[in-house]
Every structure is written in C-alpha cells, then in structure tokens.
Write a structure and sequence with these properties.
Elements (H helix, E strand, L loop, with lengths): L1 H21 L41 H11 L5 H5 L11 E5 L2 E5 L2 E2 L3 E2 L2 E3 L8 E2 L1 H13 L8 E3 L22 E5 L10 H6 L20 H12 L3 E6 L1 H9 L11 E3 L6 E6 L20 H14 L15 H4 L10 H7 L7 H7 L3 H4 L1
Parallel strand pairs: 5-7, 9-10
Antiparallel strand pairs: 1-2, 3-6, 4-5, 8-11, 9-11
Helix pairs in contact: 7-8
Bound molecules: zinc ion (ZN).
Zinc ion (ZN) binds next to strand 8.
C-alpha cells in the first residue's frame, strides 16, 4: 500500500511537471504579446523530502507499537488535489458550492458542453468545464448576449474540476464551481476540432511594454464584453491584468458603475476571470468591493508592481533557491477542506457528459 502511494505521488508529480511546462505561470508577465504555450515555467523542484513516502516499516515483535506509530507519522500526506484531480465526473448530489473559492469543492456540478451555438470550451483534456448550474447558465447567457456587442462567441477556459477542489496545476481558486476563465480571443466562426481546442494559442492583449494593452489587439469589443460580464448582478468580481484595467478605466463612456468589480491581478492578459457570488448556504461570501472604481491609486500601485517585476533582478548571493511551482506549495489536505467535501468525493458519479462519452468511444465507424 505504502509503495502504491509512492507511485501515485511520483506519478502526480510528473503530471505537475508536464502540465506546468505547458501552462503559463500566472505570476509571470511576458514582455511581448506571447502565445500561451510559449511562456514556460521553470521545471518545478522535486517535492521536499518530508513529503516523500515513508519506507515500509516491519510491524513485528516488541517494536510493533512504536513502529506503527512511526509509520503513521511518516505516512505520505494525501493531498486533496490528488483526489479531486482524479474525479472524472460530478458527484450525483444536489448542486452546492461548498467552502471558499480557494478551499472548497462542488457537489452536483454541471458540465458545459464542448461547443454550443455561441461558445466553445478550450483545453478539453483538462476536464475543467464543470461548474455550479448558476455559473454555467450565466456563461451561456453572456455568450448569447455578447453578440449584441459584436462579440462572436466565447472561448471558455478553465471553470472547475467535476467535483471542484484543488487542482494539480494552476489556479488557487476555481474550487467551488463559481469561477470561470474566458479567453480574450474571439471565437472563430467554425467549430474547432478537439485537437485545435487543445492546441490553439491564446493571444496576449499587452503591447511590448506590458504596461498597456496593444490597441490593435484589445478593441472596443473587448471593453464591451468585459463590461457586460461585470454588469450582471450575480458577478461579484472580474479579474484582469492591470494594463487591461487601465484600458477599461480610459475607455470612453459615461457609465462607470461596473468598473469597481473589475480587479487587477497578475497574469490574466490573454483571458479574464469572472467570479459569481455564493448561491447557496455553505459557501463563503467575499466582502463587497468598496465604493470607488479602482482607477486611481490602486491601479497606479499595481502598474508600479508590474514595472518592478519587469526589471532584471540582481542575482542574490549564495546558492540558487530551487524553483517550486505554486501548485506544489498549495498542499491542501482533505482535513483542511470542509467536511462535506469528503461526501462529495465519495458520492456516486453522474453519467459522463455526452461529448466526453463520444470522445471516449474508439471509433464510431469500426463499432457498427
Ligand atoms: Zn481564473
């Protein structure tokens, strides 16, 4: 058993490395509008020793008691992300967001179909197109209503895993089915193949200073899309790169009432992130954003931080500190999640979505 755990842990670490290599690091800002896949995070350092599997202990003779205790102490930590990352389908329970955006899970998740009349989901192999039904409904509404602004349809990035929870790679939040990433690349006017949805690069909205958007890429239609998303009463926050927030602040128009919800954050230069409020008892509500539109001192301070982050830093003396991927730092265990998340994890699954079932069918032609 101990050995099996070791392999599972080692396997998941490999998965982390592989996925991180293909993921943009959310804390890095590229200087040029770079395609997503081109921004590579350094290879994460191996997991700290303390987290490595304990050697199997012989449980015989007088030492049995002490050894058992010892083995228990050295038992590898089972991380919630390893368990939730394996769930293939949602828990067949009444829909409920449980806990906090960055420490929780999702019961009764609903899958957003791979492609609809005015949306397509990206990176399908990640299986993160699950959300609370209220979020899924809102995404469909935004996809449809944004057409009025000349936006042809949404390319939807990560929402949540089938049962929410922490993820093996990326995102601290997105755990309760109430967060969704939407690409700032307009949907093409055809249905992309599964391969294309896996491979197509997103477009950065930044110019080469990384402190402003590129006006050839970031257009009034982008402003209208983000404005529409932020204007829905259910949406409590929209996260964008500070340069995008600056562009929104400068965009013409008298109605600035929605701007306060749009918050600057690292990354988010090729997609924006919408977060809806807690729709049920059992999930935590975040405090409302206070009054002002966030276009003043807060934005200035963010842009200063971005500027500082772009300057090459002198190498600190001493041995190099190994890079540890953010996901490796987030070692949330099951005990740190709301107790209800154990029920979510152990509940029977809803049947996998039709899209997935189709993709899993070897070849329809040979099956007859
Ligand atoms: Zn996000």
């Amino acid at each position: 058993m101990q050995r099996t755990r070791t392999f599972i842990l080692a396997g998941s670490l490999l998965a982390v490395s592989a996925a991180n290599a293909a993921e943009p690091s959310s804390g890095t800002t590229v200087k040029v509008p770079a395609p997503v896949a081109a921004t590579r995070a350094p290879v994460p350092a191996p997991e700290p020793k303390s987290n490595a599997a304990a050697p199997a202990t012989a449980k015989t003779g007088d030492k049995k008691h002490a050894d058992t205790k010892d083995a228990k102490d050295k038992k590898p930590k089972i991380l919630a992300r390893d368990l939730f990352g394996k769930a293939k389908s949602a828990a067949d329970l009444t829909p409920r967001s449980i806990g906090w955006y960055a420490k929780g899970c999702l019961a009764g998740g609903v899958h957003l179909a791979d492609a609809g009349p005015d949306w397509q989901t990206m990176r399908p192999s990640r299986n993160r197109a699950w959300g609370h039904p209220k979020l899924i409904a809102l995404l469909k509404r935004l996809a449809s209503e944004a057409k009025q602004d000349g936006w042809p349809g949404l390319l939807v990035g990560d929402i949540s895993q089938p049962r929410g929870g922490p993820m093996l790679t990326g995102h601290a939040s997105h755990q309760v089915g109430l967060d969704a990433d939407i690409w700032l690349t307009p949907m093409p006017n055809r249905v992309l193949t599964r391969r294309e949805r896996e491979d197509i690069n997103a477009t950065s909205m930044l110019d080469k200073t990384s402190l402003s958007v590129d006006p050839k890429v970031f257009t009034p239609a982008h402003v209208a899309l983000i404005k529409r998303a932020a204007s829905y009463p259910q949406v409590e926050r929209v996260f964008v790169h500070p340069a995008i927030k600056k562009a929104l602040c400068e965009a013409p128009g008298k109605d600035r009432s929605w701007l306060y919800k749009v918050r600057p954050i690292w990354g988010h230069f090729y997609h924006f992130h919408i977060r809806i409020g807690c729709p049920n008892g059992g999930c935590e509500t975040q405090p409302a954003v206070k009054g002002e539109d966030g276009c003043g001192s807060e934005l200035k301070s963010w842009l200063k931080d971005i500027e500082a982050s772009l300057k090459p830093k002198p190498k600190p003396p001493g041995p190099e500190v190994p890079y540890v991927a953010p996901s490796a730092k987030r070692q949330i265990t099951m005990d740190q999640l709301p107790a209800e998340c154990k029920v979510v994890l152990s509940s029977p699954s809803v049947p996998p979505p039709a899209d997935e079932a189709m993709a899993a069918t070897p070849t329809a032609a040979t099956k007859k």
